[in-house]
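Hi support team,

I've been running sequence recovery on a batch of backbones for a student project. Most finish fine, but this one hangs at about 90% for roughly twenty minutes before it completes. I'm not sure whether the input is malformed or the queue is just slow. I've pasted the structure tokens below so you can try to reproduce it. Let me know if you need the job ID as well.

Thanks,
M.K.
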């Protein structure tokens, strides 16, 4: 089953898309110059699997537009974007943030001050995006975070964009899913003690209370990178909740689920946001996640497969390894469209153009329209259950 949550009315979203169709860009001569675009991703550390997938999504999009690609639009048309339309080929300058916010800020400084890029893509985790976004916004450099969802992003400034719906959308959707599926009125919450995890906890608990009269009886915020989470897990079950919501990722999630299993906590206790944040890390021990239910961000269906998943497999020799590469792919396509629309590789012109082109771009991961703050207007989610270690489509009542 697919869930959809929007920050505006459907009528308003349709009107915004209908009000704009891609106009001819200012005339640009064929250019042999390159347009530098920065990329910050975790290629080492606890989130390396997700980082590699995000990088691949960007690389696929850039290869396509550098060769000339017919980018799909919502009205069913396609617009050809290549070096002539963009004013040159895109050159990626890739930085590994080692799964650490401090390293990401160092990378952002280098990309802005040394490489003088007008745009930075990538960025996994709100803790990283908030830190780098504050720096890039202060320095008038566009940044599009492809996999970051904290509501804090909305207040950073006009040069920061998010290609994924914020926690206000996922938190509410996860709370809806958990309550409607379980019927429970008491939940525990285990979340990473960072902007992403805390945002998910706050939004989900608020939704449970206000919409359903349910209660978060215990909230536990764990520190990342620990070698033992058993004390945190004992706190989670201390009030004997029927179910618990969890926000975890990377190798931390693998340890949390293993230790929970060893403590006798049934995996079916958990309702998780973004399961692909940890499914690759637990492939060798499927029993520790058997029966976990969750909401995955992203798209499915023929368009997603033909536009992104099949070309990804042809390019890299395997299917997309997480949900996040598709969002990174869309962020790079939006930059190509913005370069065409703006007729300039200046950051301020790109920033303004992104608001325009996002309204009519047919994203591989769904609607990519930015609101006035550069955040996603809407997001869609897929209900899943873990069976034999594999995320499997699920519908409430099954």
């Amino acid at each position: 089953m697919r869930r959809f949550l929007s920050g505006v009315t459907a009528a308003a979203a349709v009107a915004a898309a209908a009000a704009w169709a891609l106009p001819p860009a200012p005339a640009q001569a064929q250019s042999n110059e390159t347009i530098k675009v920065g990329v910050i991703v975790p290629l080492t550390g606890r989130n390396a699997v997700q980082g590699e997938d995000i990088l691949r999504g960007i690389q696929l999009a850039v290869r396509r537009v550098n060769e000339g690609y017919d980018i799909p639009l919502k009205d069913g048309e396609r617009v050809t974007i290549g070096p002539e339309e963009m004013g040159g080929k895109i050159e990626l300058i890739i930085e590994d943030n080692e799964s650490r916010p401090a390293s990401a800020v160092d990378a952002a400084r280098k990309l802005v001050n040394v490489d003088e890029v007008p745009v930075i893509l990538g960025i996994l985790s709100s803790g990283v995006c908030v830190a780098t976004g504050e720096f890039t916004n202060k320095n008038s450099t566009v940044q599009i975070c492809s996999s970051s969802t904290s509501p804090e992003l909305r207040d950073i400034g006009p040069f920061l964009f998010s290609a994924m719906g914020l926690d206000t959308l996922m938190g509410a959707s996860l709370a809806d899913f958990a309550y409607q599926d379980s019927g429970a009125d008491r939940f525990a919450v285990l979340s990473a003690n960072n902007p992403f995890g805390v945002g998910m906890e706050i939004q989900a608990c608020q939704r449970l209370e206000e919409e359903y009269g349910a209660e978060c009886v215990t909230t536990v915020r764990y520190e990342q990178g620990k070698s033992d989470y058993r004390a945190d897990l004992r706190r989670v079950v201390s009030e004997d909740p029927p179910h618990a919501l969890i926000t975890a990722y990377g190798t931390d999630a693998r340890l949390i689920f293993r230790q929970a299993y060893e403590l006798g906590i049934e995996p079916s206790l958990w309702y998780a946001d973004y399961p692909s944040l940890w499914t690759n890390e637990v492939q060798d021990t499927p029993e520790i996640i058997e029966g976990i239910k969750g909401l995955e961000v992203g798209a499915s269906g023929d368009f997603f497969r033909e536009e992104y998943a099949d070309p990804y497999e042809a390019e890299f020799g395997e299917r997309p390894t997480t949900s996040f590469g598709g969002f990174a792919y869309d962020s790079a396509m939006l930059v190509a469209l913005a370069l065409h629309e703006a007729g300039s590789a200046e950051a301020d012109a790109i920033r303004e153009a992104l608001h325009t082109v996002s309204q009519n771009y047919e994203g591989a991961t769904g609607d990519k329209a930015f609101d006035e703050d550069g955040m996603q207007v809407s997001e869609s989610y897929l209900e899943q259950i873990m069976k034999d270690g594999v995320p499997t489509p699920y519908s409430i009542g099954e």
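--
Follow-up from support: It reproduced on our side and the slowdown came from queue contention, not your input. The first helix runs from residue 10 to 18. No action needed from you.
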